[in-house]
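Lab manual, section 2.4: Encoding a predicted structure.

Procedure: take the sequence of the chain (137 residues), apply the prediction step described in section 2.3, and record the output as structure tokens. A sample record is shown.
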Amino acid sequence: MAIKRRSKVDSSFSMSSMTDIVFLLLVFFLVTSTLVNPNALKLLLPKSTNQVSAKPMVSISIKHYQQSNTFSFHINGKNTPVPLSEIESLLQKELSETEDPTVSLHVDRSVPMEQVVNIMNIAKRNQYRIILATAPE
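Recorded output:
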């Protein structure tokens, strides 16, 4: 009496489940690696609804004059420009007695990042919080 097996053992291995696991691990590490990089400056980037928990004590505006490629710095919306070399001393004078000094930075779109970083470096040296103001969408 010849008994035949109905099912044969398949010796092949399916790699589809392994590729799913590798893909999920890749996505996991990509997402977590972006969270590990801390910012060097304390920046508060407000949403377009302009709702920020910190109230800025001082605002600095940087205006770019494209014809002459010059920049002017204005503190608290005053029309008189302030030289970059005097901004740090003026900020120290205005924010010396505040508990949590916060600066709001308003920048034209055409201003190079170098000018923005100059103000951020002043804020970092003096341990001020800085808010980068944006226009609503």
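Check your result against the sample. The longest helix spans residues 16-36.
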